[in-house]
Amino acid sequence: MKRRSPSEQHPGKRARAPADTMDDQAPSKPRELTQNPLKKIWMPCKNGLPEHHISQRKVCMTNCPTLIVTVGLPARGKTYISKKLTRYLNWIGVPTREFNVGQYRRDLVKIYKSFEFFHPANEEGLRIRRQCASAALNDVQQYLTSGGQVAVFDATNTTRERRNTILQFAERNGFKVFFVESVCEDPDVIQENIVQVKLGSPDYTNCNSDEAVEDFMKRIKCYENSYETLDEVLDKDLSYIKIIDVGQRYLVNRVLDHVQSRIVYYLMNIHITPRSIYLCRHGESELNVKGRIGGDSGLTPRGKEFAKKLSHFIQTQSISDLKVWTSQMKRTIQTAEALNVPYEQWKVLNEIDAGVCEELMYEEIQENYPLEFALRDQDKYRYRYPKGESYEDLVQRLEPAIMELERQENVLVICHQAVMRCLLAYFLDKTAEELPYLKCSLHTVLKLTPVAYGCKVESVCLNIEAVDTHREKPENVTIHRTTEDALQTVPPHF
Amino acid sequence: MEPLQPEQRMRHRLESLASVPQFCNSPTMIVMVGLPARGKTYISKKLTRYLNWIGVPTKVFNVGQYRREAVKTYKNYEFFKPDNEEAMRIRKACAAAALKDVAIYFSKEQGQAAVFDATNTTRERRSIILNFAKERGYKVFFVESICEDPEIIAENIKQVKFGSPDYADRGYDEALEDFVQRIDCYRASYTPIDDEKDRILSYIKIYDVGSRYLVNRVQDHLQSRIVYYLMNIHVTPRSIYLSRHGESELNLLGRIGGDSGLSPRGQKYANALETFIRDQNIHELKVWTSHMKRTIQTAETLGMPYEQWKALNEIDAGVCEEMTYEEIQEHHPEEFALRDQDKYRYRYPKGESYEDLVHRLEPVIMELERQENVLVVCHQAVMRCLLAYFLDKPAGELPYLRCPLHTALKLTPIAYGCKVESFFLNIEAVNTHRDRPGNVDVDRDPEDALKTVPDHI
Q1: How far apart are CA A469 and CA A290, in angstroms?
Q2: Cross-chain Cβ contact A30/B22 below 8 Å
């Protein structure tokens, strides 16, 4: 019977059949467990030292690295998809990098003259372009064999010949390949595409708009004759997704594993309809003012003022069909209530759980848990509060919210400091190191508008005084530091 | 804010908005399309089970069932011949009756999704459904299953058709021959969804049991989730093993939650589990645990690689963590009563509810669907949630499913459901199952409240 056998595709790691190696007589002596002090993960140890054991859940269980290969004519959104996908995968914890062959070409051929470079009869041009593709693949190999898990190979890759070269390269190195083809014939979409990203390209810095558009259209023509789209029959053994007309339709073939399944789901949920996402925290809360973290307190009078101002601000923005989301904590709901519009409560938007440190002041944390306090400063992203969460946990918790934000259009998210940092890091492509120190002040709204390959940020402070809740990383993060050193960067409070 | 009366407080907490966003404003009809023996009913039932589990009230409307009720005895495939006018009349009437019930389900029974399970192989039939939906403001999402692999179809017929009421008194070969003729009756008039003519419709086409998909115009969050689910399920035979950690120190003391290690008996169970798993001779078994010490200690004994999932952690009992039921009754008698009133939706103060747990476990279920042989070492409440998904148990039953310590459950998908085999590994353990007591009033005596608490030290 024909069946899908994803397990066949995974080289290496098979579960050891216990019968082969276990001694029937000796009772299994379990390994001692120790709890990693930073992440609070239980790990096997010997003589008190942790043994190397990859037993934690990693987001994606690929045993071999994955090469994502874009396919499509120019101005079909390949680079847009590459960058966005890379940003998403890195955010959820899968080390990913994109390799844009056009960039290699620009580095090699310092000055772009005209579309003639891409003419199929231009031997010199072809030679250079092949060279660039090779150089990029070399770098891909470097990356995927030194810690990278996914590489996005961003180029037209419009011929079967080029794709075969890549497939052979991947097979030699034991990489899985997943193609992402973008097919679009809508002239309006292509035109908008060119206006948004091509006119600003280094290739066209010295041309005016009309010249640039004309040249680019001719460039596209150079590829059209030799374009071989992924074929249902000829390419039936390849793993790919074909995106047709910016997401009206998708063709998905042979998804092999978890990573590919997540990629497909993500690609099927993103869109390019113009919209804005508004992020803000709840109004100032009673516990904020006392310098205490966590808890579920209500708004202070100033916090209520902010909520009113937020309502006015939202009205002046004249946003069509705005969705409003809050957490399930009192302070965000009170803030939303002042807007007098329907809102949805999401538990996943709740503030980071500080476990045993809930409702404590930093001074009290230093007094009662000086070791924990120092560990947190050493690695704020991965540090998990005892019986609580880490920023890393928070990101995983927030993933469905990000997915739904991608599906939606205009949304206002009223959340919390740590949560807002995670969401902001996703939109602005911030690293895990930067994320926990992003500035997300009370009473300030961030308006994020996707533009070209990134996100425009407008910060609107609504001019209501509030305490500062931002604690910078202190200089001294050693576990033996003095109380004074530990509390150096704590913001003032009552 | 003035203190609310107990009944008001209960309503206040329980009416809080669901922890998942509203899926859709208008109800959705999921309409199956495909020749007989293409897995439509399999998909219908599985999808319905999944949607109900994640909190979307869903029901299957199987037109074949309506036909069996209208025509008490099935004679043979001639009923399905396209020129059989009498039969055509009956079949049209059955489809209409099913549609009528769909409307009642949506308007009177708070249904949110209805799976219309029939061949729906002609454009004409699909038009009728589309018009019906348009008139009432329902969204429509088609799921077409296309397969021409004779082995798959034969296996399909074997698994589910021979057991059908239609063939109750027929021999194997006779049934097979009749069914093949039945399929042929549909073939001539089968018009698949057309990628050109039907470009404005929302649909997914599943080719060859999932090696390829075509997805067109996904309209909303619910359809996106349905597509994701359908793209992750498979029919490769496999088994899922569910077990709790071995008995823990806190279990012995009758305390809930916490992060304690195994008791000596718990360790014995881990050893017994290792033997059991070895004897099962499972091909390429994956082992999953939570982040809590007791499940990890249990897995360590297996001597195999395992993955830790934070999502598999036991339900967070908030302020009641590490308390005995007696202590909860003493310090939080009202909470204790509220929990007994609605154990599924009740959320511990600063903790979680079973409803939250289901939401948290959804990625685990999705990955379990993708995987093949898996052993999940988890906790009582978590195991109840997972079991409810596989065995299609409603929210009312879920929190009371029996998941005793030291017992492994082996779940094997079969036909339209799941076979369950229970293995008690003969190591004594405390009972941690607390049944719903008779009296759930907030004013009840401690004696009434603690009536069903199992024994402990």
Answers
A1: 10
A2: no
Show the tokens assigned to B353: 């509810």
In A159-168, which positions are buried (b, 16+ CB within 10 angstroms) versus exposed (e)?
ebebbebbbe
Q: What is the pLDDT of residue B18?
A: 37
CA distances from A417 to A332, A413, A471, B150 (A): 11, 12, 11, 58
Mean pLDDT of B283-303: 96
| SS percent in chain B: helix, strand, coil, step 5 | 45, 15, 40
**Residues of A carrying an active site annotation:** 154, 184, 282, 351
Residue A308, Cβ neighbours under 10 Å: how many?
A: 15
Question: Would residue B418 show up in a list of annotated catalytic residues for this protein?
Answer: no
DSSP for B55-88, please give it.
T--EEEEEHHHHHHHHSSS---GGGG-TT-HHHH
Q: Is B197 on the interface with A (CB under 8 A)?
A: no
A255 touches B: beta carbon within 8 Å = yes
Q: What one-character DSSP code corresponds to residue B347?
A: -
CB pairs A-B closer than 8 Å:
157
Whole-number Å distance between alpha carbons of B398 and A223: 59
Total residue count of chain B as it appears in this document:
457
Alpha-carbon gap, residue A176 to A87, rounded angstroms: 20
Q: Which residue in chain A is spatially nearest to B300 when comparing CA positions?
A: A30
Least trusted range by pLDDT, from A20-29, A289-298, B90-99:
A20-29
Q: What is the pLDDT of residues B196-234, one digit of tens each?
A: 999 999 999 999 999 999 999 999 999 999 999 999 999
Report whether pLDDT(B404) > 80. yes
Report residue A207's pLDDT band, with 50, 70 and 90 as the boundaries: confident
Cβ neighbours for A234, distance < 8 A, ≥ 6 positions apart: A160
Question: ∠ at Cα A297 (A294, A303), nearest 5°?
Answer: 105
**Concatenated DSSP letters of B145-176:** EE---HHHHHHHIIIIITTSGGGTTS-HHHHH
Sheet with A150-154: strands ordered across? A96-100, A150-154, A66-71, A176-183, A240-244, A249-253, B212-216, B203-207, B139-146, B28-33, B113-117, B58-62
CA distances to A92, A428, B445 from A87, rounded to whole Å, are 9, 9, 57
Task: Please state the ipTM of this predicted complex.
Answer: 0.90
Residue environment code for B431-455, b if the CB has 16+ CB neighbours within 10 A, otherwise e? ebebeebeebebebeeebbbeebee
B324 strand-pairing partners: B255
A269 touches chain B (CB under 8 A): yes
Instruction: Determine whether the interchain pair B286/A5 forms a contact, defined as Cβ–Cβ distance below 8 Å.
Output: no
Rg (C-alpha) for chain B, rounded Å, is 25
Residues 298-357 of A with CB under 8 A from B: 325, 328, 344-348
- Using a CB-CB cut-off of 8 Å, the residues of chain A touching B304 are 15-16, 18
The two tokens of residue B201 are 């419709």
What part of B 92-151 touches A (C-beta under 8 Å)? Answer: 149, 151
DSSP run (H or E) holding B130:
helix B123-136
Give tens-digit pLDDT for A91-119: 999 999 999 999 999 999 988 889 999 99
Residue from B345, B379, B164, B119 nearest B250 by CA: B379
Q: Pull the structure tokens for residue A171.
A: 């097979």
Active site residue B316: no
Question: Is the pLDDT reported for residue A62 higher than 70?
Answer: no
User: What is the band of A241 on the pLDDT scale with cuts at 50, 70, 90?
Assistant: very high
CB B257 within 8 A of CB B314: yes
pLDDT digits (tens, 9 = 90+) for A120-154: 999 999 999 999 999 999 999 999 999 999 999 99
Q: Is A33 on the interface with B (CB under 8 A)?
A: yes
Cα–Cα distance for residue pair B241/B254, rounded to 1 Å: 26
Q: Contacts of residue B237 in chain A, CB cutoff 8 Å?
A: 3
